From TrEMBL:
PANTHER family to which the protein is assigned, alphabetical: HTH-TYPE TRANSCRIPTIONAL REGULATOR RUTR, HTH-TYPE TRANSCRIPTIONAL REGULATOR UIDR
Annotated Pfam families: TetR_C_41 (PF21351), TetR_N (PF00440)
Gene3D superfamilies associated with the record: Tetracycline Repressor, domain 2
Name of the protein in question: TetR family transcriptional regulator
GO MF annotation list: DNA-binding transcription factor activity; transcription cis-regulatory region binding
């Protein structure tokens, strides 16, 4: 029952935040939408901000899962890593992602690097960087530093797109720059053979 209540509140909040924005979304309206009371919201999330954090973490985790699925289709591990970053950047065009994760998230929750979902993404990228270094594809630089810079570049590109008046134009520029910056990590900038296996 507790998990069901949490899920209902997150679902209602996600809909309200996407349609109205965090500031304009009424706690009474979203709890009524979920068929619950304010007391249930306070019990499970502390306050409205805690509910926003849960929604942001859910959407951000879904974005990471989708990006990994896209990356898994690439010809090799290096292109897979780049494809994940590009996919994350492209999701900045989606209205729900844009409003909740990229606009309201930083405005009301602060630095995204402190979000649970972003730290999970960092760990996954870190592992991929270590694997690519072991394969001799990435230069021997600090894996954590490389992972933080790659994730930070993708996130900041997405934030830039969300705040831009010409999002399609910014998207093209951001993806080109992201691939160029990431390419600097390569040991030998050349085409790579397909890998027999890939880490998830």
């Amino acid at each position: 029952m507790m998990e069901e209540t949490r899920a209902r509140l997150i679902h209602a909040a996600r809909k309200a935040f996407a349609e109205k924005g965090y500031a304009a979304a009424s706690m009474d309206d979203l709890t009524a939408e979920a068929g619950l009371t304010r007391g249930a919201l306070y019990h499970h999330f502390g306050d409205k901000r805690g509910l926003l954090l849960a929604v942001v973490n859910q959407i951000d985790a879904e974005m990471a899962t989708r990006a990994r699925a896209i990356g898994s289709l690439a010809d090799n591990d290096w292109e897979g890593l780049l494809a994940e970053g590009v996919a994350y950047i492209e999701m900045a065009l989606e209205p729900e992602v844009q409003r909740i994760v990229l606009l309201d998230g930083p405005a009301f929750l602060g630095d995204p690097s402190n979000w649970t979902s972003q730290n999970s993404c960092l760990q996954a990228t870190w592992q991929k960087v270590e694997a690519l270094t072991a394969q001799g594809i990435i230069k021997h630089v600090d894996a954590e530093a490389a992972a933080r810079l790659l994730n930070g570049a993708a996130l900041n590109a997405a934030l830039w797109i969300a705040a831009s008046d010409d999002q399609q134009d910014v998207l093209v520029k951001a993806i080109e720059a992201f691939r160029c910056l990431a390419g600097g990590l390569m040991e030998v900038p050349a085409s790579l053979p397909a890998s027999p296996s890939r880490r998830s």
